[in-house]
Amino acid sequence: MPDRGGGPHGPRIRVGRPSRRARTLLMTLGVLAVLAMAFVMFSGFWTDWLWYRSVHYSSVFTTTLWTKIGLFFVFGLLMAAAVGVNVYLAHRLRPPLSAMSVEQQSLDRYRMGIAPYKKWVLLTVCALVGLIAGASASSQWRTWLLWTNSTSFGTKDPQFHVDIAFYAFDLPWYRFLLSFGFAAVVLSLLAAALVHYLYGGLRLTSPGGRATAAATGHLSVLLGLFVTLKAVAYWLDRYSLAVKSGNLRSGDWTGLRYVDANAYLPAKTILFAIAIICALLFFATLWRRTWSLPLIGFGLMVLSAILIGGLYPAIVQKFQVQPNEAAKEQPYIQKNIDATREAYGIAGTEGSSYTGTNPVDDGNRQQLRAASDTTASIRLLDPNVVSPTFQQLQKVKGYYAFPSTLDVDRYTLDGKEQDTVVGLRELNLAGIPQHSWINDHFKYTHGYGVVAAKGTTATEGGEKTGGEPVFTEYDLPTKGMLGRYEQRIYYGEETKQWSIVGDKTTPEIDYTNDYGERTYTYTGNSGVALKNPVTRLAYAVSFGEPQIFYSGAVGDDSRILYNRTPKERVEAVAPWLTIDGDSYPAVVDHRVVWIVDAYTTSNGYPYSSRTTLGDTTADSLTDGQRAVLAQQNQVNYIRNSVKATVDAFTGRVTLYQWDSKDPVLKTWMKAFPNTVQPKSKISDDLMAHLRYPQDLFKVQRQLLTRYHVTKASTFYSGSEVWQVPNDPAAKTGKAVPPYYLSLRMPEQSGQTFSLTSTYTLNRRDNLGAFMAVNADATSKDYGTIRLLTLPSNTQVYGPQQVQAQFNSDPAVAEKIKLLSGGGGSTIEYGNLLTIPLEGGLLYVEPVYLRGADLNYPLLKKVLVWYGGRVEFEDTLGEALNALFGTASGGTTPPPATGGGGGTEPPAAGNPTVAQALEDAQEAYDAGQKALKEGDWGAYGQAQKDLADALKRAQKAEQQAQKTG
Questions:
Q1: In a domain, 615, yes or no
Q2: Statement: residue 921 has pLDDT above 80
Q3: Are 175 and 309 contained in the same domain?
Q4: 944: three-class secondary structure by DSSP
């Protein structure tokens, strides 16, 4: 036994080894600690596997997992082997240490210290670089699957005449392999040089040769490999020019320009040849044992890269391109236009001329009034405004809620398809009367029912509705137009907490009505069964909720539901898709399903300009109301290739192939077979509710601000650039959102469910174009984009200008004042709809009143504008009658001369009217500038000036009519 303490004559303390029982206990505790840590790490993996199995997409989990594991081990082992072999070779090629220099003597202590642990040091270094390389490679699982399952586009790029699949699928993988090769060679070179130096193969201060022949040969081979990889990089750089981003005077740019095709491209080819020669010189040192020629070659390569790859293109750009850029760049601009329009699905979009102006006179009043009824089903109920009204009138209980932005769909009512505003009564945990672990996760588990209202006749019956929506599906349980369907909502956009359901000993609260509280026990097969104690323990650890493991409320029939939003579920089962920011509910085949639009994207379409999805899809509704699509995801190719559904009761996810021609989708379907159903599996009932997605429309809308132009010369000049106007009813300064509307465009024979938006001229508020896409999936020309281009030399009022006229019209202002009553009530404006009507433009805007004693808005008035006339009435019909001067029954009363909010268009050639309108425009512009700068005093003065100018214009016009 070892002794501790005491001197020669002092007491000795004997320190004994721990007893066998103590050692056994310590070993047991250590093993349990290791097992506990392993279980914690394993629980996340295990619960993920159980979830994927529960949704019947286990193949997605296994394919992704094995791909990541395979890449991790293959590239991890390759990197470890590369570094390990070179370290081993450097050690084997070390020289004998016969003559010890001062430098070698100082290194000797390091050699002596490492000697007993050489194998462990080598294994540690190899393991470390292998783990880092493997982790990096595993993140490339998407790139690997795209490369191994590549599908041809059937289209070749205009420069190299290579199929676009090479750029989209092959080039990214080759780039990864190249970067991995560079990393392996550099790490091997550094490790080998360090070992050679440590063991005398390289000498920095000792007299004589600086490197042994063995070290020279070894390091030269590694340098030769590095230069060889650089040659490969130069060759791939040639193709990368077709997808590189840059800037041109006309804006952002993707693809080759004149300087790329005539300077960079030949430079890369020359540098490739020089790099090959330089690499051969390095390999030749195996026989020559001197670095003189390789170093000369390497210096020549560096100098060539500076002169040929940098200076020469700069000279070409400065002296050939800039003096005549428009002519030099024209062929490449045309390639960019064609590729961009094809990549974003706007290749067939052509604008048609539209006057945008049509004054109202005695000869066309009845025609305009009749056309206003047939051209569009004008949706007054704004889904972005009326959610509080749904909340107040239809949520029934505090633990239910509607989303802040409702959805527009189509349902057949009284034999006629109508635009309908819909929302689900989802669970709102914040409204639970008493919070507890049981209430939050076992009792309150689901929402209940669909609520729907007519979109076009919200003021039906005049004051009978009091401005409330006309509900077509209502109450709890719901009743109305939808008939019988499963009303319980276990999965929804606002259902983000996990719940445990299915055990009869802990029934759920189904709903509460006049007959009391109704309970329910979940009968679906969704979620993960918790019968197994190991599974319960795994979820307790994974969720950080130990009560899941030991609570008596969790029984053999219990199932845990999580990942409950439609977006989460579709993203999980199809991680290769980009999900639209707006999922919407529909009643399909007697079940409530969420319909989710999903996109396949690529960033490798040659010549196609890139766009950042998060910026492009942002508008006035994405600030806390609606999700933004893929915040920083930059792409230059997009297709709405998949339509997905999520059952609101069972959570079942179904993916349907919507675009059967998309090569990106075909590639992913090869990588994940049997996960996407063919389009033929879509039922007729589901097809009736599919629509054109908003986010794709917004991406295309933004691209068309520039790419509606098809001629390179016009594109370069930028004279025809449009802009998406800001939402005139919002204070955020964000783009106006697109609106769903049943509409008949000028060349169409009947109304079609459409998605619409407007453009204004660049840096001006005048209307530049009107855009509509056929959003009805049952229509033959679904997805057809129609553009009405307005003349740029004529003043056609845009949304902000019309809103300014609404705000400054004296008669409207007086009625607004009377409506609000000055008692704390507030006015809210709904969506300002733009409708092409008989050569002119009809603007319609619902006006809501939020009373001082109400916390929800009611539709009270309707603003309309056409041909410079403004009307403000209780109902849409009354407003249109006043606008076009026709009473119900088709009679034609005298033209309105004000008083009712109407103003005739200005008399042609009247200088007073013209000057007043010019002053009005200046006042409006000053107001917008002040608004952007936050100068509210200047903004108020500008609004006064605007009102004064419009009054002068109206007075001069009336005077002209009297004297005429």
A1: no
A2: no
A3: no
A4: helix
Asked if residue 139 has pLDDT above 90, the reply is yes
- Give the up-direction half-sphere exposure of residue 209: CA atoms within 13 A in the CB hemisphere: 13
Residues 802, 846 share a domain: yes
User: What mean pLDDT do residues 761-786 have?
Assistant: 92
Whether residue 150 contacts residue 668, with contact meaning beta carbons closer than 8 Å, is answered with: no
Cβ atoms of 723 and 760 closer than 8 Å: yes
pLDDT, position 463: 40
* Residue at which a domain ends, from 879, 905, 931: 905
Give the whole-number percent of the chain exceeding pLDDT 70: 85
Q: Is residue 342 part of a domain?
A: no
pLDDT at 907: 41
Residue 452 DSSP SS3: strand
CA–CA gap between residue 802 and residue 834 (Å, rounded)? 10
Q: Which two tokens stand for residue 187?
A: 């790490």
56 near 123, Cβ under 8 Å? Answer: no
CA atoms within 13 A on the CB side of 56: 11
User: Is 434 part of any domain?
Assistant: yes
The verdict on 743 and 852 lying in the same domain is yes
With the CA atoms of 528, 531, 536 and 539 taken in that order, what torsion angle do they form, in degrees rounded to the nearest 10? 0
Cβ pair 316, 263 in contact under 8 A = yes
| Phi, psi for 620 (deg, rounded to 5) | -70, -10
Going from the C-alpha of 889 to that of each of 311, 370, 883, 894, the distances in angstroms are 79, 11, 15, 15
What was the pLDDT predicted at 460? 46
pLDDT digits (tens, 9 = 90+) for 496-513: 999 999 998 889 998 877
696 vs 247, 339, 629, 783, CA distance in Å? 25, 17, 9, 11
Q: To 10 degrees, what angle do helices 171-198 and 58-92 make? A: 30
Structure letter (DSSP) for residue 771 = E
Dist CA 533 CA 528 (whole Å)? 13
Q: Are 11 and 74 part of one and the same domain?
A: no
> Which structure tokens are listed for 194?
């360090």
Does any domain span residue 115? yes
Q: 836 and 900 share a domain?
A: yes
Q: How far apart are CA 286 and CA 174, in angstroms?
A: 29
Q: What is the arithmetic mean of pLDDT over 462-488?
A: 82
Instruction: Tell me the per-residue pLDDT of 518-531, one tens digit each, with 9 for 90 and over.
Output: 899 998 889 999 99
pLDDT band at 893 (very low <50, low <70, confident <90, very high): very low
Same domain, residue pair 733 and 764: yes
Measured in residues, the chain has a length of 964
Pair 900, 912 in one domain = no
What contacts 266, CB < 8 A, 6 or more positions away?
A: none
- pLDDT computed for residue 243 by the predictor: 93
DSSP 481-495: TT-S-B-EESS-TT-
Residue with tokens 């769903």: 740
**Bridge partners, 837 (sequence order):** 840
C-alpha span between 247 and 265 (Å, rounded): 18
Confidence band, pLDDT 50/70/90 cuts, at residue 337 = very high
pLDDT bin (cut points 50, 70, 90) of residue 891 is very low
Given a cut of 70, whether residue 251 has pLDDT beyond it is no
pLDDT in tens, 166-216: 999 999 999 999 999 999 999 999 999 998 888 877 777 655 557 788 888
Please give the Cα distance from 964 to 959 (Å, whole number): 8
Instruction: Report the candidate in 362, 369, 359, 462 with the shortest Cα–Cα distance to residue 880.
Output: 369
Average pLDDT, the chain: 85
Number of domains in the chain: 6
Q: Quick one: angle between helices 911-933 and 936-963, nearest 10?
A: 170
Residue 839's domain comprises 350-374+703-905
- Tokens representing residue 763 in the block: 């840096």
Alpha-helical (H) ranges within 622-693 are: 663-671, 684-687
Return the DSSP state at 603: S
| Residue 362, both tokens | 């005695």
Q: Does one domain contain both 178 and 302?
A: no
Two tokens at 181?
């090769």
| Boundary of a domain, candidates 200, 235, 258 | 200
